[in-house]
Amino acid sequence: MDCRVVQELISPYIDGELDREEARQLEAHIESCSECRQRFGQIKAVVQMVGVLEEEELPDGFLDRLQARLEAEQVTGMVHRKHSRFSRWVKWMGIAAAAAIIVLAIRVLSLDGLLYTSPQEKGQTDSAAPESMSKSLLEGSQDEESAGSSDRPADDAEKQQKLDRGDVSASDAESETSEQAQEVDGYIKSDKVELRVQDVCITPQTLMIRAIQHGIDMVDQTENSITLKVTSIEQRKALYRELELLGVVEEVGTNFESDTVTIVIVEQE
Amino acid sequence: MNDEALLIERAQNGDVSAFEELVSLYAKKIYNYCYRMTDSREDAEDLAQEVFIKVYRNLKSFKGDSRFSTWIYRIAYNTCVDRYRKGRKLDTVSLNPGKNEDSVEIELVSSDPLPEEEVIKRERYRKLQACIAGLKPEYKTVIILRDIQNYSYEEIAEILQVPLGTVKSHISRARAALCDALREMLE
Predict the structure, then answer these.
(1) pLDDT band for position B83 (50/70/90)?
(2) Can you give the residue range of the structural domain that contains B73?
(3) Least CA distance to A58: which residue of chain B?
(4) Comparing A184 with A176, which gets the higher pLDDT?
(5) Best mutation target, B147, B151, B170, B185, to test chain A (most A CBs within 10 A)
(6) Is residue B140 part of a domain?
(7) Strands laid side by side in the A192-197 sheet
């Protein structure tokens, strides 16, 4: 047996992974080759040393901290479910309806302008259009809020399907109840969240406008994120509700003590 | 169906207490795996928690085609390697006493002088741990799984999703590399 082959086989030999014939050949070689014998001794010593390394204890509070992160995960998981195909459909229908109203409004205004107003007045009506557009969009998003509650029939249908499969257990009922409780208490827990949106129109400015409505101040802003100062649990709840209407919220921060929250807008395909 | 399979099924159906039981079964092992991979308690906690969050998110996709233990270790391995790729601390090796967190611990607890034997043992432990953490990720993972956590070659192949022959050669080379790194200590 070649020395190189022997050195490759030392480990499987130690682990009892060689067949009897291979093991016999290796033992014969080691007996006659001092270099391989030395290597065998070294590898065996390493395996023994590593084998007696003691297991580290879990750090104090490890499971509590994990539980806190999982609870945050459950809340965002729930949000994910809430933004089901149905609610997305409702959201897009809301936006489409708002867009239709805007088009109609602009048409009416343009007609009025063409038929009855002077060029100066026409300029004024045009400049008023963006204001009515943003108002309509805001109204559209309020519609979404009420649409969120109309998501229930979809949940009920899912429940009924489960019943049909004979698939409803006590734990299901429990989790439903706790989900409903969390729904009321949903708030941003850490210092950073991702907001996954399908609507390219949602920018840090959109978030700033919504934050201002709740007395939340801006600390910083980048192209795709905004950092806000949140001083109370009510503000965290309000912010959470606002974000929930815009997309899927996911907690990604690890600092649960901070008084700022950075919201990163991520466009989903 | 064994106890673990029942726990998994309950957890997949949304039973939080079943998931907590699964966590308690694996938390220490996964934390230790991450600790050996990083040589940092802080990073190990962060990584181990990330592993369980990924397990929670993906639990429904676990179909039982592989063992749950190998599935969870595969997530742990990928999580550690991702961190390594992002250039954070997975490959840090410090053989310089005084810069490592374990040596700090020795100073903190040694208001009474430790017996010489104990000091040597701790120093040896620290160097060994640093040498393991200094290996390439695919080498250190096989050392941890095989020599510390006693997984079989087949299980390691399942965790890393590589052929058995690759596991054999990785174990062989990893031990040789560790041996070279520790030669000074062994002689």
Answers:
(1) confident
(2) 1-92
(3) B28
(4) A184
(5) B147
(6) no
(7) A217-221, A225-229, A260-267, A192-197, A248-251
In the block, residue with structure tokens 């064994």: B2
In a domain, A15, yes or no: yes
Q: Domain of B2: which CATH number?
A: 1.10.1740.10
The domain tally of chain B equals: 1
Q: Give chain A's domain count.
A: 1
Q: Is residue B154 a part of any domain in this protein? A: no
The top-scoring range by mean pLDDT among A52-66, A200-214, A255-269, B108-122 is: A52-66
Q: Domain for residue B3, yes or no? A: yes
Please indicate, yes or no, if residue B11 is contained in any of the structural domains. Answer: yes
Confidence of residue A132 (pLDDT cuts 50, 70, 90): very low
Q: Looking at the domain assignment, is residue A262 inside a domain?
A: no
**Per-residue model confidence as pLDDT tens digits over A181-192:** 344 458 898 899
- What pLDDT sits at residue B3? 85
Name chain A contacts of B125, Cβ cutoff 8 Å. 53
Position B150 confidence tier, pLDDT thresholds 50, 70, 90: very high
Residue identified by tokens 């040498």 is B131
Spatial separation of the C-alpha atoms in residues B44 and A97, rounded to whole Å: 51
Residues B171, A15: C-beta atoms closer than 8 Å? yes
Q: Is residue A43 part of a domain?
A: yes
Given this model, what pLDDT does residue B101 score? Answer: 42
Nearest to B28 among A8, A9, A55 (CB): A55
Residue A88 has pLDDT above 60, yes or no: no
Residue among B45, B54, B39, B106 at smallest CA distance from A58: B45
Q: Which domain holds residue A41?
A: 3-51
Determine the residue type at A32.
Answer: S
Contact (CB, 8 A) for B72 and B26: yes
The DSSP secondary structure of B93-156, one letter per residue, reads ---STTSSHHHHHHHHH-SSPPPHHHHHHHHHHHHHHHHHHTS-HHHHHHIIIIIIT---HHHH
Distance of CA B132 to the CA centre of its chain: 10
> Other CB atoms closer than 10 Å to residue B61's CB: what's the count?
8
